[in-house]
Design goal:
This protein is of the alpha/beta class. It folds into 3 domains: 180 residues, Rossmann fold, CATH 3.40.50.980; 172 residues, Rossmann fold (3-Layer(aba) Sandwich), CATH 3.40.50; 100 residues, 2-Layer Sandwich (GMP Synthetase, Chain A, domain 3), CATH 3.30.300.30. It contains 16 helices and 26 strands. A hairpin with a 3-residue loop joins β24 and β25. α1 packs across α3, α2 crosses α3 and α7 crosses α8. The chain is globular, with a radius of gyration of 23 Å. GO terms for molecular function: acid-thiol ligase activity. It comes from Tatumella citrea. This is AMP-dependent synthetase. InterPro entries: AMP-bd_C, AMP-bd_C_sf, AMP-binding_CS, AMP-dep_synth/lig_dom, ANL_N_sf, ATP-dep_AMP-bd_enzyme.
Length: 496
Amino acid sequence: MNIYHLFLNARHKYADNIAIIDPRNHISLTFSAIVDKFHLVAKFLDQQSIPAGSKVALLGDTDAESLILDYALMASGRVRVPLDNALSVRELQSQINDSGAMVLAYQQNCREVALSLSQQGIRCIPVSLFTSGPATPYQIADIHPQQLLSLNYTGGSTGQPKAVMHTHASFVSVISNMILARQIVPGDKFLNVRPLWPIAAVVVLAHILAGGTVILEQRFRAESYISLLQYHEARYSSLVPTQLARLLSLLPDQPLEDLPALGCIDIGASAIPGEVLDQALRVFNGRLALLYGMTEAPWSSYLRYATLPVEIRQSGSELSGLTGYPVFGAAIKIAGPDLAGIGEIIIGGMHLMAGYWRNEALTLQTLQDGWLKTGDLGVYTEQGYIRIVGRIKEIIRSGGKSVLPAEVEQCILLHPGISEVHVFGQPDPEWGEKICAAIVLSDPATAMSTDDLTEFCKSQLSRFKVPKTFYILDSLPRSHYGKIKSAEVMKKIEQL
């Protein structure tokens, strides 16, 4: 089974149903029209001497044309290399060269960047040339399930970007897991407000292949998000925590009564503060789900609030950090727990990546005996869920003791004058590492001393966990997923 076969099956079942709506460009595409576009793209690729197995970098937009090309690359046996259009020309050139991509397909919003890349010797072709023209049947060669399908560049929250390899088989597994977990039925509408280049294109793909309809909004706008849910009668949508927090800041802290079609909003990619989750559960009447996964193992667990036992439905702080139960095709467990039950979360399943592109050492370090070592630390709750308590690489070794930054962060966020925090260790001759905290004030005009912060932390934490240095910043740089970019935080601190 491969992606092309899944689309053929969907066309057979839902031929004339609308699969994709792009309001900005006034485009609606049926399942039949999508498969016709695949044949068009496959023919163009062959004519351009870009054979099956070739890597094609994609610098697109959140629009139907970019999404169709992305799926057509998969369906025609090429290897997609989706790129972040927020990167610099130098960064994009590095990823394109590393991937070995034969060509860059670019959308018009990236035209100037593509021109700069072409001057560096990279072959660049507009997306429109791939997808335009009359549709005619075209033979697409058979694709083996283990054939490479995608290279996804990810840097996580620290370190150098690395390319995650996924095959047709692993993506088929991801899609199956998502359809079963969400319980998508034909006709369900999904409102997408997230960039498609990371893994969101696959989230959208699962919804389409289940017979649903996807509405592509160019970007998230907190002020219009609720009205879009209402207008499109969307049953599902997805937000990262920073988007959710921004949305809630504009809404009254009371249940919304005018979203009868809404089934669930998925929240994932990074941790959610307990008070934000509390408010979200009230505002959306519990119609939320928490995701756990990563590019290396997408959608590994799914926690739908409405299905939780009554005794743990009461508090967002109790839910924050929970991974839920594994989805149908995944296994999750804690390896090597210590006396407190804390150990590394590892994931198994057919949805795992094949490895890291051109990095065998890191692949062997991460994939062991069929399990993916996530680097996340977790502990089992009484109900059998796993709670994430930190990252192995983020553990601070200070004065002979181990400190989890997440625990310190949760404490600092209890202070009403602080809206964001990032706790980390810095080398120290006396302590080995000293605990530091970068904070963002709720009201920048309010004065706050480090002595006040220290005393507050002492009232909440053991003394060895209290940060020795506080840095007050105007903001904490975050990725598209809402994760704090540690390296960029360090740069901001160096500039103080």
